[in-house]
Design a protein that fits this description.
By secondary structure, the chain is α+β, with helices and mostly antiparallel strands. Helices cover 46% and strands 15% of the residues. Helix 2 packs across helix 6 and helix 3 packs parallel to helix 4.
Length: 142
């Protein structure tokens, strides 16, 4: 029985590229958010995110492009600009919610009941990784 469970864990890790293959920014961001979530370093949603940014504890802010509340987007962008927090946008709130852990993982390792999340703030990256270096280089260049 444990052999099947190990197979499911390997399937869940499949988005990571093969060794030697360059990692794109979205895959790197997904890995950074996963590590940060494991180290209790994520603030999900506007209320939690705004509190972390105001405390000057935020290191990175991720905003969903498909957010349909213009005031929400304006507030997050203004807070990030005021407090010198780097801002990265992702195309979908559902994708961001899945990366931030707002879902259930079924027995095959697939995400179910994904809740959308328009804003995620990273307060602790967790541990150093290749994905973290790629995200930091992306932030410096944009």
């Amino acid at each position: 029985m444990s052999g099947g469970e190990e197979g499911a864990a390997i399937v869940a890790e499949s988005p990571a590229p093969a060794l030697g293959e360059p990692m794109d920014i979205m895959t790197a961001l997904q890995l950074v958010l996963k590590k940060s979530l494991a180290h209790d370093g994520l603030a999900r949603g506007l209320h939690e995110g705004a509190k972390i940014i105001e405390k000057h504890a935020a290191q990175l802010c991720v905003l969903a492009e498909d957010c349909n509340q213009p005031d929400y987007v304006k507030l997050v962008r203004a807070l990030c600009a005021d407090h010198n927090v780097s801002l990265i946008t992702v195309p979908s709130a559902k994708t961001l919610g899945e990366w931030a852990g707002l879902c259930k993982i079924d027995s095959e390792g697939k995400a179910r009941k994904v809740v959308g999340c328009s804003c995620v703030v990273v307060k602790d990256y967790g541990e150093e990784s290749e994905g973290l270096h790629i995200v930091q280089e992306y932030v410096k260049s944009h």
